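User: Hello! I'm new to structural biology and keep hearing that structure can be predicted from sequence alone. Could you demonstrate with Polysaccharide deacetylase family protein? Please show me the input and the output so I can see what each looks like.

Assistant: Of course. The first part below is the input, the amino acid sequence of Polysaccharide deacetylase family protein. The second part is the output, the predicted structure written as tokens.
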Amino acid sequence: MSRRFAAFVATGVALAVVVGALLVLALGHDRPTRPAAATTQTSATPTPTETPTLNAPPSTPHRPAPDPTAALATGNKKVLFLSFDDGPDPVWTPKVLQVLRKHGAHATFFELGSMQAAHPGLREQVLAAGNTIGSHSITHAQLTAVPAAKRRHEIFDGPRSTCFRPPYGASNPKVRADIKAAGMVEVLWDVDPRDWARPGTNAIVQNILTHARNHNIILLHDGGGNRAQTVAALDKVLPLLKARGYSFPAMNC
């Protein structure tokens, strides 16, 4: 009896072990699998390449106007830039405009603020004829010889333009810095026929014909005194220059 009982017990234990193993396997298949180790997660939201900033300054600072003759003087076209200083004058500016219109030419008038104030309406006549206007300061002060406050006033409060011609051509780093700060570029000249000294009509014409080269800026005057010689010289020299193939656009001012 004891051997039979022992065999029965052993058989029961074996069955219990087998059933337990089957239960463990069944539970193992029902339980979700866990990652073996933590991994680095990538955010579902992409990182912006630039962070927006409230009230951010402009991406590019304010810069002065580009070279007012560059775009007009490209290619094979021969051009000369006529410029007139010290106006507008109620007598001579309309006469200059008449000669320019007669020959199909345009120019840039570097005007004084004091003359604009004294002769309202002439600025509009200059612009209406297809010309442009540059600033020549307010009172024709020599900007290299006046106090800083006066220099800035002459530059910042003069005629509205993107071009500035310092009186007498007098310039230095401080003058140029103020011109740039006012949003303008300094414009001087290449040819000075000294019409302001009234050397005679023929002398003005010959000076221009001798020295003018393609893309040059020519200095003349429509104010500051009697400009009869300038007007007569302009009427003579324009057809001669046109015969050489030149045209006369106004500068971008």
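User: So the tokens describe the shape?

Assistant: Right, they're a compact way of writing down the 3D structure. Reading them back into a model, for example: Residues 1-63 have pLDDT under 50 and may be disordered.
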